[in-house]
Amino acid sequence: MPDVFISYSRRDAKIAEGFRNRLQAAGLSVFLDTASLAPGAPWSQELRTRLGEASVVLILASVAAIQSPMVNQEAGAAVLWGKKVIPIVWELDPANLPGWLREYQALDLRGGDPVRINTHVTELIGRLLREKQQSQVIAIVALIGLAALLVLSGK
Question: Could you read off the pLDDT of 18-49 as tens digits, one per residue?
């Protein structure tokens, strides 16, 4: 199961790969179609499955991406499925995102200053790692509670 699903336009493939590399280097599992799909895989079904499994969906919201039917489908599914959605912008104002994406706080990388971009991306990765750890702790506590209930009920 991926921690992060990256939705992007093919025009932004190098940026998507850069995000995937940074996220994976930090210890997060990432689904990026070009790197994650095996040859011969039924890609449409695989995309739906991995999107459904991911905790976070990064929408690389370039001008090309917001015009892409596939990115719009992935973003819409992420919203409907209650995923944590993070639009990332660098060539357009977050106010110009489609209405359903505008409701989510975007990571704004406009300006092109590499130091500022690196700082924002590093902060995002730190937040994602903390949220992953919190989710794991909650799951462990839930399992311990379930085990205790089973023991107490004699099962």
Answer: 999 999 999 999 989 877 766 777 677 887 88
**Residue pLDDT, tens place only, 34-89:** 777 667 776 778 878 889 999 999 999 999 999 999 999 999 999 999 999 999 99
Query: Cβ(5)–Cβ(58) under 8 Å?
Result: yes
CA dihedral 87, 29, 79, 63 (to 10 degrees): 30
- Backbone φ and ψ for 108, nearest 5 degrees, come out as -95, 110
Count of helices and strands (H, E) across the chain: 7, 5
138 HSE (CA, 13 A, CB side): 6
Nearest to 19 by CA among 142, 152, 103, 122: 122
Nearest residue to 23 via CA among 132, 145, 144: 132
Neighbours of 90 (CB within 10 A): 16
The residue type at 149: L
